[in-house]
Write the structure tokens for this entry.
Amino acid sequence: MSDIRKKFDELRPAYPPGMDASLVLPLLHAAQEANGCVGEGDAAAIAACAGVPDIQVSEALTWYTMFRREPPGRHVVKVCRNISCSLRGAERVVEHLRKRLGVDVGGTSADGRFTLLTVECLASCGTAPAMQVGDTYHENLDEAGVDRVLDGLR
């Protein structure tokens, strides 16, 4: 709570009076940056600092895909599932990743190396199917391309 309260106090002057609820997203980002995920205690502390109901923070956590409730693997693999990627083979890419990593979408591999996620859009429609690993985009993927990416990770 004290870390979240400190961050709230740092951010608060940048927002107009009465707009404390606007700090929910920045505080969620700060908690995740500090801890790798947003735990229940973090969510409750954010709600208390921002003066909003707990459900408002919970809604933000479930709506935005960038927030994690559990610690992620060392490599977070996000595969676009939007129409362009789907039409060009995203489902095959996801199925290949599931088998190769031994994990379902939303899960983390037993060795803690990989977390597999699907996301609605990576804004790479012209080079679909696409996936993002960390901050790096990989495009025009097929199973062999996925293997090359994974084999290059440490």
